[in-house]
Amino acid sequence: EYVTTSTGSTSSPVPPPPLSCWFTDITQTTASLNWQDDDIACMITNHSIIWWWDVLWNDEVGLEETFIALNHINLTNLSPYTNVTAGVAAATDSGYGAPTTCWGLTLQDIPGAPAITTIKLTEHSIYVTWSPPEEANGQILGYSVNIINEIRNITLYTDGMYNNAVIFDVQQNQSYKITVEAATEAGWGLPSDAVTIYTAGNEMLRKS
User: Fold this and answer.
1) By C-alpha distance, which of 53, 101, 45 is closest to 77?
2) Is the separation of the CB atoms in 165 and 179 below 8 Å?
3) Which of 67, 108, 184, 196 has its CA 20 to 30 A from that of 152?
4) What residues have CB less than 8 Å from 16, skipping those under 6 apart?
């Protein structure tokens, strides 16, 4: 009498989502993504990492995916003040399970330079307008309008919502050098290109 035996295995389910994920070591342009896998009998062989980002000071958005067997990854080449959302899914030989999601926010950086757009002169004042920095690198909190004169230097501060200022008590037949700077919570950024004007009555001679 012969007895035959057979061996086989039933298909194992895909792994559950990682227990948690979180960001550490966040800078203006980098962030470390970490996660903890669930404790299961089958060996976890890989992870799918999908992260997408939304730069909060412009319209840039994007998405990337990578695969890694470790339990952490360094995300690089991010922009300052960017909301980053990541989904981490674990894999066994049976495939990938559902992801666990977490998010982080990169730090703000100092802004680039504004650009002076308009200068108008009246008998005793100068009206200045400017455009915001192309590289805001965060939320613009305010502007500094700096006026350098041979008699006195003046600094005016405006809220980040405004892009104009009026300099009063302007003297005739004098030169005024004007620059504008922007600030985020990271500090004051680069100054605009300077514009130098010379007042003569209601006439204005402008020199870049």
Assistant:
1) 53
2) no
3) 184
4) 38, 40, 90, 97, 98
Sign for the CA dihedral angle at 183, 188, 190, 195 comes to positive
Extract the tokens encoding 1.
Answer: 């009498």
Whole-model pTM?
0.84
Cβ count near 77 (within 10 Å): 7
Give the residue from 52, 21, 30, 45 showing the smallest Cα distance to 95: 45
Q: Which two tokens stand for residue 151?
A: 């008699």
* Distance (Å, whole) CA 53 – CA 86: 9
The rounded distance, in Å, linking the Cα atoms of 120 and 102 is 50
- Per-residue pLDDT tens digits of the chain, which is 208 residues long: 433 333 334 456 899 999 999 999 999 999 999 999 999 888 999 999 999 999 999 989 999 999 999 999 999 999 999 999 999 999 999 999 999 999 999 999 999 999 999 999 887 899 999 999 999 999 999 999 999 988 888 899 999 999 999 998 888 888 999 999 999 999 999 999 999 999 876 555 555 4
Rg, C-alpha atoms of the chain:
29
Among the listed residues 26, 113, 106, the one whose alpha carbon sits nearest the alpha carbon of residue 74: 26
